[in-house]
Structure formats: C-alpha cells, structure tokens
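Teaching assistant's notes for section 4

Start the section by putting this record on the projector. Ask students to predict, before seeing the second block, whether Queuine tRNA-ribosyltransferase will look compact or extended. Collect guesses on the board.
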Amino acid sequence: MYKLIKKCGNARRGEFKTAHGTIQTPVFMNVGTLGVIKGAVSSMDLKEIGCQVELSNTYHLHLRPGDKIIKQMGGLHKFMNWDKPILTDSGGFQVFSLAGIRKIKEEGVYFSSHIDGKRIFMGPEESMQIQSNIASTIAMAFDECIPIPSTREYVEQSVARTVRWLERCKVEIDKLNSLPDTINKNQMLFGINQGATFHDIRAAHAKEIVKMDLDGYAIGGLAVGETHEEMYNTIEAVMEYLPQDKPIYLMGVGTPANILEAVDRGVDFFDCVLPARNGRHGHVFTKEGKINLMNAKFELDGRPIDEGCQCPACRDYSRAYIRHLFKAKEMLAMRLCVLHNLYFYNNMMKEIRDAIDGDYFSQYKEEKLAEWNGKA
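Reveal the predicted structure now:
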C-alpha cells in the first residue's frame, strides 16, 4: 500500500507498506545480487548504513545456491539474516545482458548458464515460482529489456509479448500466494514499462499495464546506451500515464545526478550497482564529486574520504590508509569504500526526503548539482 505524503513540484514523498516493514520513499535499494553486497558487507552493516531495501537477482539465485534450497532454508530473509524488505529482479535483465547465449520465444527464454553452460528455461511462470521460493517482499514481472537502439518493429513486438508475459505473471503469483507452503503469501508484483525511447510505445504500454492494478510499476530498459537527455525525456513521457497512488521504480539508475533528476520527475524507487562497484575499485563519492583513492595525491592525505560523513570508513580511517590497503591488496579497502558509497547514497536519499518534506527540493537539487559540478 503506497501513501503519497507530500509533493514538491513533481517530486514525491511517500510511504510504502509491505509484509516486511514500511519503506520511506524516495528510496535507493542496495544491490546484493546473490543475497549479499559484494565487498564483504554483512546484513548488519546494511542496517548501520541506513539501507531500507535490499535487491537480489532471481536468475543468479536460481543458479546458486538454487531457489529450492533457499525455500528449504526458510526464504531469503532468514537465509541472509535480513528482516527488512527485499525486491527480486525477475531475470528479465539477463535476457538483455546474456544476448549471446539466449533465445527468446513466446513461452519464455532459453538460456545457457554463464557458470557452466547448462541449458536453462525461464518464462513468466518459472520466474514467479523462483521468486516465490526466494520469498522476496516484491517480485518483478518477467519482461524483455530491449537494447537501444532497436527498430520500431522489434520494440512493438517485444512490448506486446511483455504485456502477455505480465498477464501470465499475475495469474501465477496469485496462485502461488494462495498455496499453503508459500513462505510469503503477501508477495507483491511490480509490472515493468518498456518501449526503448519511443515515447508513444511507452505511453501505450503504460496504459495497458496500469489496467492490471498491480502493487507498483517500474520503468525498465533505460541506462542501456541512450543519452541522459533521452532517458529524462522518456521518464517524463511515461510518468504522465503511470498511477499517482502506486510507487514508481526506475530500474538500474544510476549516478547521484541521475537520481536527483529522476526524483524531480516523480520517481520513488532506484537501484544501481554503481556505488558498490565503484567502491571496490577505490572510486568514492564525496560532497565535491567522485574521487579515485588510487591517485598519488592521497598518499599523505590524513582526511576521511568525505569530511562530515558518519559512515564506518570516514569515522575511523584516512584516505591515505585506505589507499595503502588498496595498494597492498587488502580486502578491508574494498569493504570500507563500499560501505562509504552505500552510506553516501542512502544518506542522500534521506536528505532528498527531508528536502521534499521541507519544500526545498528544487534548491537542494541545484546546490548538489553545483557542488558535484558534473563529477557525481
């Protein structure tokens, strides 16, 4: 259940009640593909750095350790010791990212496993069954993430099939939620809007999926090759047709600047591997933009990564020490930088929520973009 608390222009401040607690929005979901954040970050760490929602991947968990094993262990919440919301991506993005080893048919997608080459089939029903076994809070519908650029003809065919797949997802999740051995009988379903950068196809698809009255709606298939301007224009084009009383999720986006721009257009949910991936390579976010701790100029820098930051890395360690850890190939370097970057994102979302609550979001956005000056 989504409750819109306040608007500041098009920016929305809301609450989303789930079986695993209430999510304050706008929110950034911390990406733990295999039920863990890469970089030696624990579930307890996530609580300390202000994570509200953890995101895991259906396809990857299906392969390792196996969704049936997760079900036998009591579901992913129990398995990874996390009692807050979890969203599972449907595996649809893998249709896009594994383009060389898959075949799309009406019934679903035939994959070769990226681990051992084993043949796998996943369709809407299989995706829902795997997500039900995982027992996530929010399940994403199975869709095709369309590459950009694609021909109009291909996009139209793909979107029509995605609608048919969504109908099958809804039937299947309703059935699974009613079974006696289902762990989370209140699992929610989000539909995904597709259409590449064709605004009329996006709008028509949004109108179709809104009729299904789902728990939330995602804008998929962006940040896959188009310019930032094309992405923002596409968000604007589709927002008009998505419901105001449901959460809107922009999938796989993005940089701090991308998030500010999308919040300004009405988006509530975000996820991206960027903060954790960057952190593992010594690229960290600060008030002045992104810096690379590998640079020689930080060799004698006794300051924290970001002065004033309250994350575990900044409270206790210097740039010089963390740089030394990277040079010495010590795992602690990755851990500290991932913790810092995720704290930076989670804290930024809190500041965004406060700015909407206080009616100063536009000013906050302008000040942040000026501070970062294109570096974030």
